[in-house]
Write a structure and sequence with these properties.
The chain contains eleven helices and ten strands. By secondary structure, it is of the alpha/beta class. It has a single domain, classed as Alpha-Beta Complex (2-enoyl-CoA Hydratase, Chain A, domain 1), CATH 3.90.226. Helix 2 crosses helix 10 and helix 5 packs across helix 6. About 3% of the residues have low confidence.
């Protein structure tokens, strides 16, 4: 199939979906998000596909939702009643439970191969994948909380309440070794071995009878939903809308002023500068000026 912002390839029983906006660190635009879910459905409907790999082109898995003003634009409170705004937020955010559950409820297992930056919405998308393998260059974070935004309950469900709070309340970066320690990924491999390892594991999954894989995915996914995951994600979506509706308050007014004066780079420097050095990753050392 022809896509604008992703690559779709199949080799044997393995389909690989690559987020393909490398110039924007695979920032998630509405087009990319729609194409991703379409590609997942295409792969899942193909009986010859027994496993899916999800990865990113270039230096990032994904830098999160696009706030550059390009396709998708910055998320701002519109001059309209709060009701339509809340509906809009619920329909176009990864906090929409349908988007997370879509990946979890696929009959075909999805392996996330994290090749670099895995930030914000990119981190959201890594969590519902069945298995996650990370390059030793991978960096994870939810820095958008520093501009009044929401985290995801799935982080706490996987890693635990206190562990999630360490990063969802600060937006701090953490590296692949820390991601492995807290349980949000399965394995860390040398960067150059990432796709080889992900492909080998996908082919191993493909050796299992597909009906068995589908059934055992349902055991865990529907079990979690029965325990309350769907309700928790629905509440998450509602709170996400309120968080973004609060994003123009006095505590963050300086961020928008920085954007007006110096664009996205200035906005990010104003947002993240006070938090340097980050605990892990390439920004963990103060630059030598």
């Amino acid at each position: 199939m022809d896509f604008e912002t992703i690559l779709f390839e199949q080799s044997g029983a393995v389909a690989t979906i690559t987020l393909n906006r490398p110039e924007a660190l695979n920032a998630i635009s509405p087009t990319l998000e729609a194409e991703l879910h379409q590609a997942l459905d295409v792969a899942d409907a193909d009986s010859s596909v027994h496993a899916i790999i999800l990865t990113g082109a270039g230096r990032a898995f994904s830098s999160g939702y696009d706030i550059s003003g390009g396709d998708g634009g910055p998320e701002r409170v519109p001059p309209s009643p709060v009701g339509p705004y809340l509906r809009d937020r619920l329909n176009r955010s990864m906090s929409d439970p349908k988007k997370m559950l879509h990946i979890m409820e696929l009959g075909t297992p999805v392996i996330a191969a994290i090749n670099g930056w895995c930030i914000g919405g990119g981190f959201f998308y890594s969590l519902p994948c069945d298995i996650t393998i990370a390059s030793d260059r991978a960096v994870f974070a939810l820095p958008e909380v520093r501009m009044i935004s929401n985290s995801t309950f799935l982080f706490a469900a996987i890693a635990g309440w206190k562990v999630a709070h360490r990063y969802t309340l600060t937006g701090d970066h953490f590296d692949a070794a820390e991601a492995l320690r807290i349980g949000v990924i399965n394995e860390v491999v040398p960067h150059d071995d990432l796709m080889t390892r992900a492909t080998a594991l996908a082919e191993r999954l493909a050796n299992v009878p597909p009906d068995s894989v589908r059934l055992n995915k349902l055991v865990t996914t529907y079990g979690l939903e029965a325990m309350g995951l769907s309700s928790a994600l629905n509440i998450n979506g509602m709170l996400s809308a309120f968080a973004h509706a609060s994003g123009d308050g006095p505590d963050v007014a300086h961020l928008e002023e920085a954007r007006k004066q110096g664009g996205l780079r200035a906005f990010l420097e104003a947002r993240d500068g006070p938090f340097l050095p980050e605990p892990f990753g390439p920004r963990s050392r103060v630059s030598q000026d």
